[in-house]
Amino acid sequence: MTTITERVYDGTGVEPPDGRDPQRWLALSIIAVAQLMIVLDASIVNIALPKAQADLDISVADRQWVVTAYTLAFGGLLLLGGRIADFVGRKRAFVGGLLGFALASALGGLAPNASLLFAARALQGAFAAVLAPASLSLITVTFTESKERARAFGVYGAIAGGGAAIGLILGGVLTEFASWRWCLLVNIPIAVLTAAAALPIVRESRAEGKARYDIPGTITVTAGLVSLVYGFTKAAEDGWSSPVTLGFLSAAVALLVAFVVIEARSAAPLLPLRVAWERNRGASFISSLLIGGGLFAMFLFLTYYFQASLGYSALRTGFAFLPFSGGIIVSAGIASQLLPRTGPKIPMVGGTVLSAVGLLYLTRIGLDTGYVSHVLPGELLISIGLGLVFVPMSSLALIGVEPHDAGVASALVNATQQVGGSLGTALLNTVFATAVTNYLVKHGPGPDSQAQAQISGYTTAFVWGAVMILIALVTIVVLVRAGKEDVPAEGMPVHAG
After folding, report:
1. What percent of the chain has pLDDT over 90?
2. Which pLDDT score is estimated for 497?
3. What is the CATH number of the domain that holds 424?
4. What is the sign, positive or negative, of the torsion defined by CA atoms of 317, 320, 322, 327?
5. Closest by alpha carbon to 494, among 413, 427, 388, 377?
6. In this structure, are 406 and 462 located in the same domain?
7. Strand, helix or coil for residue 207
8. Exposure pattern of 451-475 as b/e (b: 16+ CB <10 Å)?
9. Are residues 108 and 228 part of one domain?
10. CA distance 48 to 17
11. In a domain, 4, yes or no
12. How does pLDDT run across 451-466, given as a tens digit for each residue?
């Protein structure tokens, strides 16, 4: 194992006597803007997706790539991004990530066809995979005093929690009054100005030691996940028994098995298997994967239900999702208070039950049902449940972990959620398309049948989303053994490194 030491630099190469950066709070505001941009990008693009699909003539089977191309690259490259930031320099990675994100956003915003939009979204995810861990690492090394660091991470967490709500409204405003393209182009001035501000303010730091990157592991896991998502996509077009579908799914299994073998033998693995094998941490990562799948897919189908079935504008759609963000913020605060008293298992069990019930409640929607009576209760149940799950899930990932593995363990919660979102969105989009086709075969292709077929697709997808959440519930019940005495004293985010 390589011994890693830290070195922090100010602009002159001279460290302050007490090691505390005099511009640390200004640096935090710059880092927070970058984090806000990453969080915004997920929700803002969801609101714009129906318009983008119509404008670029994207098929129903392929529309999920606007979401999954980003989340696959982000989740699949996050651990590698953390190592790059550690050894190249966190400030350098931060600025480079911002400029790369701006470039990818420009390509996506100006994309003349679906293929370039998908590629740009993947490029955004790749740069976000460097930018996100660099941001966390910079906070860790900038704030050396424990109370100040806790406050800094509190600000960071608030941005992560509230940024999605801002993205919903901003996405609605830009899509309705400008163009869906501005949901991507808006990142350019934000990223460039933030990078310019970071140059004189943010201090450089890097890990000392030999830089070692697990390139074979990165290639196999990323290729395996892309093959799996593409297999799900082909299933929507050609059926599950199609040779092409089976070929991609088989290739995915082979590549993911190869990844596990590589990680077991690597001297510097991307994912040390000892981190994931412990039962409590394994429960955290598996439940994160499954809940991410149900959550991302729910956003996708509710967006289309609001705009395509109910005729909501993009802005009204954004406001319709606001209670969801509020529910997560409130219940996450409650979970933070419960965790030291109950341990992680009780709030996680309660949260998954509420989320599954909320998804099943959404199966009652129809073409003539009201938002307050049929959508809002489901939204609130899901969001309150997720807030109760997310906080203990992050703490569970750090239980019993060695200090040198803490960064990987913490980053894996985010990575598995992103990967789960990719796989869940692709799989449930295929479930949606199959349900629509089956409905039309039974009821004919008329306009009324077309409209009802969409509802059938949404509700079927919600049922399978609830099944994913319930599998997460079983995982938590069976595997989690940690009690309140096992919860880490500091449940702060840690960089991927």
Report:
1. 44
2. 37
3. 1.20.1250.20
4. negative
5. 413
6. yes
7. strand
8. ebbbbbbbbbbbbbbbebbbbbbeb
9. no
10. 50
11. no
12. 999 999 999 999 999 9
**Which of 228, 251, 267 is at the close of a domain?**
267
Tell me whether residue 18 is exposed, middle or buried, using C-beta atoms within 10 angstroms of its C-beta: 0 to 12, 13 to 18, 19 or more.
exposed
- Structural tokens at position 9: 């630099």
453 closest CA partner among 468, 437, 467, 469? 437
Which residues contact residue 284 at a Cβ distance below 8 angstroms, ignoring those fewer than 6 apart?
393, 394, 396, 397, 413
| Closest residue by Cα to residue 312 from 118, 44, 5, 50 | 50
Distance CA 155, CA 150 (A): 9
Whether 388 and 327 share a structural domain: yes
Degrees to nearest 5, angle at CA 89 with 88 and 93: 85
- State both tokens at 356: 């599954």
Predicted TM-score of the model (pTM): 0.86
Backbone angles phi, psi at 17, to 5 degrees: -55, -40
In 343-405, which ranges are continuous DSSP H helix?
A: 345-361, 371-374, 376-396
Do 183 and 277 lie in one domain? The reply is no
Specify whether the CB–CB gap between 78 and 418 falls below 8 A. Answer: yes
Higher pLDDT, 131 or 391: 131
For residue 486 the two structure tokens come to 């096992």
pLDDT tens column, 233-265: 888 888 888 999 999 999 999 999 999 999 888
352 shares a domain with 250: no
3-state SS, residue 204 = strand
Q: Are residues 176 and 163 in the same domain?
A: yes
Quote the tokens at residue 439: 């409905």
Enclosing domain of residue 193: 20-208
List Cα–Cα distances, 296 to 45, 288, 379, in angstroms. Answer: 12, 12, 13
For residues 271 and 79, the answer to whether their CB atoms sit within 8 Å is: yes
E strand or H helix that includes residue 128: helix 114-142
- As beta bridge partners, residue 206 has 7
pLDDT over 90 at 187, yes or no: yes
CA distance 280 to 476: 8
What DSSP assignment string belongs to 419-435? Answer: HHHHHHHHHHHHHHHHH
Q: pLDDT of 386-425, one tens digit each?
A: 989 988 888 888 777 776 676 777 788 888 888 888 899 8
